Amino acid sequence: MVTIHDVAQRAGVSPVTVSRVINGVANVNPETRARVERAIRELGYLPNRAARSLRVRQTHTLALLVPDITNAFWTTVARGVEDAAQTRGYSVLLCNTDENPVKQSSYLEAVLQQRVDGVVLAPCDTDPSRLAALQIHQTPAVLIDRRVTGWDGDWVISDSLGAARALVDHLVRLGRRAIAMVTGPRGASTAEDRVAGYRLALLSAGLAFDPRLVRYGEFRAPSGREQTHRMLDEGLRPDAILAANNVLAMGVLEALNERGLHVPQDIALVCFDELPDLAKFFPFLTVAAQPAYDMGLNAAQLLLSRIDAAGPLQPRQVVLPVRLVLRYSCGRLLQQEEVSPKILENRSESVIARPLLRNEVSLLESEGGEGLLASVRSFRQAGRSLLSRVLYGEAVERIPYLELDFPGQATLEYVLERALAEEVDAQNVSPEDWLGFALRAGVDAIPCLLFSHRTGALPPVFEWLYRIEKYMRAAQNSGVEVYLSLLVPEQCVAQPSGRGEECTPHLVTALRTICDRFAEDLPLVMLRGLPGHALQAEVLAGLIAPMKEHAIPTAVELPVQSAGSLASLVRAGVTAVVAAGYPLEELAALKRACGEQLVVVGGPLAVWMRGSRREVEQVVKDYCTALSPGGRCVFSIRQSISGEIAPEPYSWMLRTLRAFHGENSF
């Protein structure tokens, strides 16, 4: 951060003189004053007019700069940022830039003078020079909703390109061919991304692109009205219009109404973003619903991670999925002779906009859209690791080892060959120490353990996002997979009596937020401790729906003597069953019963690891021999009651396991 001493050195004066110039003291030589003011401009120095603490991170305030606070999308984003900030004891200063670069610069100067600890910003354009003050003052910042060319930092956006493509695809399937688009200002990445998705859909459908049907303006209703009138005045007659946000759609609707045109009979209309009140009472518009709250939540989480970090962090770029909500305005229900709000509500459908296919990415590149690839959400890459290959049913060269529980401090220190600075357990062990242990020990995957509060209540989802982010950063490019392991509180799952019904949606919503954010990173989500009634296919299918939506494998811990639940697990779409701690004969029988339908994650109870080296090796060989036929198995052990694994036997176990390459092959 530029200091008053830097300015003094540049101007060739004392810090006292700089202070006098800043405070407008009269008796300063005009030439000296000019030299100091020039140094201030060149260095981008901002005096702390609020006289806040000169030490970093003492204000406990964040700034949020958005373009239009009257838009429900941005108020929802703000709520997500504030909820996350409040969880960590931060306040949020809200600034409305009106898409105005001058106003944006003024607000940035103001919040930097007040020494906010970090900034979440929706930039008005893609000019990186407008954000230079953030870098000069080394203020942590996260961009939201929009990208900036050359920004080497964190950002959170939604899959605008993929969602626009999906909306146009839907219109084409309904028979619309002359599809127009009304969008925001040139230079705003959201406007450009959505036009690119629109063009990609036309190209994929073999429809010619007519530049007259694309209208740039402002993300405001008057602009939507004006651009629609201009299009119609020019004699253009689209049969569908895609509006790049909800307020633009209101302007389009107003113009069509003034022309006596009906939606969707004359012109279909689709847009980005919900109008919450309208959608609740009259679900009319087909929309690409961006996860506005989650965008704010994730942006704040990234920002607070950067504020808390002891050193530099690699930039993280987050592209969240968008869900299409299909209603009446697209024309999908035109066969209905009579349409009422109740009918519309019952006929609404929601589907996630799929990521771009490889051929679509190639089309985008061939059309000069290489610069847009950073905002593209891609399909999960199956088979990238040993664990993933097993979960997807592929043949592998050896049985992977998955850590089910925290192995204990003694084992960590034994493998790391150093003492830890403090006592640690499953909740407070640092991801870096656990990953370092896994690398040295040869562990293929470790859990990011998600805990509920002691009362059994779920914590704010921000706490889980924050924890997962730390693990993902630590594991980046390490070769060790991090999967999620959630001990599900009993009261979080609805029971036949009705208890838990209010909590279940909160759990599913939290899992959806996590999967939307980390779908590309997660090889597996494991649900442990489920009560018996939760193993029913209908209940379980609801719980794992967020994972299925993103094709993330799901494992469910199976209590001993619960093999009768396998059929329910298969019907629900579960990928793997966790049976660690089963006796050898029961585990072998379970493996045979699972066949090709379920992967088995299993092994003995850790209590056997108090034996001699030969005894430990023999137990591992016996279990591997029972598990290996037909593949589809992962080795894992359950902790003993003491919660500690003897370090040396643990090491013997892993060496023996890694030496096993098939039945009787050591």
Structure description:
This protein folds into 4 domains: 4-43, lambda repressor-like DNA-binding domains (434 Repressor (Amino-terminal Domain), Orthogonal Bundle), CATH 1.10.260; 61-158 and 294-320, Rossmann fold; 160-289 and 323-351, Rossmann fold, CATH 3.40.50.2300; 386-390 and 398-658, TIM Barrel, CATH 3.20.20.210. It is 41% helix and 14% strand. The chain is built from 24 helices and 20 strands. The protein has a 7-stranded mixed β-sheet with strand order 7-6-8-9-10-12-13, sandwiched between helices. The protein is globular, with a radius of gyration of 29 Å. GO terms for molecular function: DNA-binding transcription factor activity; transcription cis-regulatory region binding. Residues 3-46 form the HTH cro/C1-type domain. InterPro entries: Cro/C1-type_HTH (IPR001387), HTH_LacI (IPR000843), LacI/GalR-like_sensor (IPR046335), Lambda_DNA-bd_dom_sf (IPR010982), Peripla_BP_I (IPR028082), UROD/MetE-like_sf (IPR038071). Pfam families: LacI (PF00356), Peripla_BP_3 (PF13377).
